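A quick aside before the break. I want you to see a complete sequence-to-structure record at least once, exactly as it would be stored in a machine-readable document. Don't worry about memorizing anything.
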Amino acid sequence: MHIVLSPLVEEKLKRIKKRDKKLFSKINKQLLLFANNPKHPSLRIHKLTGKNEPVWSISITMSIRMLYKIIGEDYYLMDIGTHEEVYKRKN
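That is the input. The structure line, written in tokens, reads:
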């Protein structure tokens, strides 16, 4: 498994690291868990419905989600934000 961060996710993670160290730590914890066991129940991974290619969601906290798609052997992390933010941008 290779995890690839989109430029958008890289930028958002930089901002989160400066503003909210606790959230940044939780994101790192969840991504490490994802890298080691992508089916771990605490990630609450689910496939989003829609017309485009399959997009999946990882729960970081009760309100923060990270969206990704699978490209070959890469897990491409596309977006991170609140449930409303990332799901609205996805559609």
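Two observations worth writing down. Residues 2-90 form a domain with the YaeB-like fold fold (CATH 3.30.2310.20). The two ends are 27 Å apart (CA to CA). We'll return to this after the break.
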